[in-house]
Write a structure and sequence with these properties.
This protein is an alpha/beta fold. The chain contains 13 helices and eight strands. The two termini are 29 Å apart.
Amino acid sequence: MPPTSPFGRTVCAMVTPFTADGDLDLDGAQHLADRLVGEGGCDGLVLSGTTGESPTTGDAEKSALIRAVAEAVGDRARITAGVGSADTRHTVELARAAEKAGAHGVLVVTPYYSRPPQEDIAEHFRTVADAVGLPVMLYDIPGRTGTRIEPATMLRLAEHPRIAGVKDCSYDLLGSSKVIAETGLAYYSGSEELNLPLRAVGATGYVSTVANVAGPVLAAALDAFDRGATAEATAHHQRVLPLTELMMAAGLPGTVTAKALLGALGLPGGPVRAPLRPADAERTAALLDAYNALSR
């Protein structure tokens, strides 16, 4: 079985539901969170991450979302709050607010746009970790931030007592394998097509956008692998690939595709906030077909 982690194992990067008018939908968030944890195969939720539209939600909205979801799921799942920003001071403020609101951990993305050098990145993460009593998950997604957390930097950061995990969207299996092998960090695939490959080299689990709609299949792949049924794990992994491709690699952000599919299924999600725009009817129909194919 995977190592114990303060963030969970099968973790959903949950959308932030909005009302038709674009306001925060806390009732919808509670309903969706309860479903993801109850029947959705998730033992952890990441709130206000990339999929949760963190760039277009306010600080007060982020705290309100944590409180509402914590009330809905209780002790059934770990809640990790996205608190990353391009500003270290603001990130510290968000991390402290998340701790006060009831989060179990914080997800901190690499500072973006300014593209700081590696030691500055490391100091950013240490400053946040020093400011709270929660475990910190580093978020390495250079395709969005413009800057990688280099493996050597992660090895140094792993020495901090509260830096406990990594969400990996680096697409560097060699670098990821090295960090997994040389540290006790709880490593998470942030790219669904790498969930099983990374688990095979020691990752703890995944943080997944696709889990908003297909969590049980993703969890089944890890469950099968962990009991030694590798052929079954591969079958589950391959079965969800068409939906993964449509949601994550077909030209639209995962937030847009996840909300389109949730809406088609009659589940909370609501609209996306600008500058994102909703998926059109053709893409939504294709997503629904791929989803329905999972049960055939």
